[in-house]
Amino acid sequence: MDDETRRIWVADTGCIGCRLCERACPAGAMRVEDRQARIDYALCIACGMCATACRKGVIHDALGIYAPAH
Ligand code: SF4
Ligand code: SF4
User: Domain 4Fe-4S ferredoxin-type, which positions (predicted)?
Assistant: First the structure.
């Protein structure tokens, strides 16, 4: 399964590396490196907290519940 079909994913562009998503993640699954947030799907529980926390609208979910899917 690629990132586009996963329930929560981070867009390749638009991230400013503010780490709000990293701080919001209760599972330690969100990592920000080089101004790009990435999800470790081995840890992600698809709670949507990161999508809610991101002020740039970079994190999306397949169902459009937490943030609009693009
Ligand atoms: S959906 Fe939840 S567990 Fe997954 S990366 Fe976002 S905050 Fe972390
Ligand atoms: S909250 Fe959004 S802009 Fe900030 S690091 Fe996470 S994905 Fe990037």
Answer: 6-35, 36-64
Pocket of ligand 1 (CB under 6 A): 8, 24-25, 27, 29-30, 39, 44-50
Residue nearest (by alpha carbon) to ligand 2 atom 1: 54
CA distance 50 to 43: 13
Token code pair at residue 63: 């169902």
Indicate the pTM of the whole model. Answer: 0.87
Per-residue three-class SS string for 24-59? HCCCCCEEEECCEEEECCCCCCCCCHHHHHCCCCCE
Q: Which ligand 2 atom lies nearest to the CA of residue 20? A: 1
The pLDDT value given to residue 63: 77
